[in-house]
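Hello Y.,

Per our agreement to keep a running log of every chain we model this quarter, I'm adding this entry. I've kept the format consistent with earlier entries: sequence first, then predicted structure.
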Amino acid sequence: MKIVPYRKNNEIRPMSSMLSLFDDFFNRVFEEDETDDNFRAMAMDIIEHDKDYTIKANLPGFKKDNVKISFHDNQIMIEAERDEKHEEEKGTIYRCERYSGSYRRNLMLPENVDPNGISAKMEDGVLTLTVPKKEPTPKKEIVIK
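Predicted structure for the entry above:
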């Protein structure tokens, strides 16, 4: 669930500004979460299969060299950084929605994953991680003497 900050605005808008009201609403709803570190979270799907988990993260425009994946204490950290600089700017920018900066996502994984078998591939702006599950260990019965 995404929490959208409430912006108190008691003024009544004339009908001509209804488009800006809808524009403001949709911009707030679809903004990505931003943390204090100036990092943003990437959109992600997590699918469980019989033998593994598949994690798909949207990273449009990122190159695989700019993506870092780490695993520690049953957590996967995915970080991506893109820095676009435009030296010459011609014209007036009315709206700039393309983000240049860092994305980060930290996922806590269940105890039944095998960290040694994690694989990753990047194709068409989608990072796909395959996280295999461990075989369940059978219960050990203790014989009472």
